[in-house]
Amino acid sequence: TLSSSSAASDVYKRQVKQQLELALKEKPADKMISDKFAYAERIVSLSQTLKRLLATPYRLANPQNKTAADIALIQSQSYTQKSPTLAKMRAQLESTLRAVNTPVEVTVLSDGNTFVSVRGIGNVGTTTSKVIELKPGPYTFEGKRQGYKSKLVEVMIPLHSNFYQLRVVADERL
């Protein structure tokens, strides 16, 4: 898996960086060692940034986080030739960015008497079946009906999915 190969690669990158640090202490004026050390530091830094962004994929829908991811992708472009692990992480981040920003068709099923809404998003209405589009991530659907307790349905619309279906019915009398 990417995480186990990534961990081994992280150890290797740190070892290379440490070896270059030692070589630089012995020959501080050596430009070639200095350049290689800076290059290794940059790969380690970019790897950490990509790993951090991939750790919370649903947060990439946030415009600020998407911008940070776009910048990291641009910055890592020229280093992927020398680091296959960085290249894999970069490809995974590109795929995750596409997925988290691609709306999913969500079929909301109800009883025709319950008024359904998506908290923070908007109203679905009173329906037996309605298709809406939502980006992947967490949502709370609320069903309201006169004389019945409101019903909350929390869902996580998954990444890399084309459709999702849920049922919201306020069916518990007051």
Describe the structure.
- It is rod-shaped and about 80 Å long.
- By secondary structure, the chain is an alpha+beta fold.
- The protein contains four helices and seven strands; from the N terminus they run ααααβββββββ.
- Helix 2 packs antiparallel against helix 3.
- It has helices spanning 2-26, 31-55, 63-76, 84-100; strands at residues 104-109, 115-118, 122-126, 129-134, 137-144, 151-157, 163-167.
- The strands form two sheets. A four-stranded antiparallel beta sheet has the order 3-2-5-6, with no helix packed on it.
- Helix content is 47%, strand content 24%.
- The longest helix is centred in the N-terminal third of the chain and has 25 residues, at 2-26.
Set out the fold topology.
Layout lengths: L1 H25 L4 H25 L7 H14 L7 H17 L3 E6 L5 E4 L3 E5 L2 E6 L2 E8 L6 E7 L5 E5 L7
Parallel strand pairs: 1-7
Antiparallel strand pairs: 1-4, 2-3, 2-5, 5-6
Oligomer: single chain
The count of helical stretches stands at 4
Radius of gyration: 24 Å
Shape: rod-shaped
Number of strands: 7
Mean pLDDT: 88
Beta-strand portion reads: 15-25%
Which consecutive residue ranges, at least 5 long each, have pLDDT under 50? none
Distance between the termini: 51 Å
Helix and strand run: HHHHEEEEEEE
The neighbouring-strand order within the major sheet is 3-2-5-6
Task: Kindly state the percentage of residues in helix.
Answer: 40-55%
Please sum up the structure shown.
This protein is of the alpha+beta class and 174 residues long.
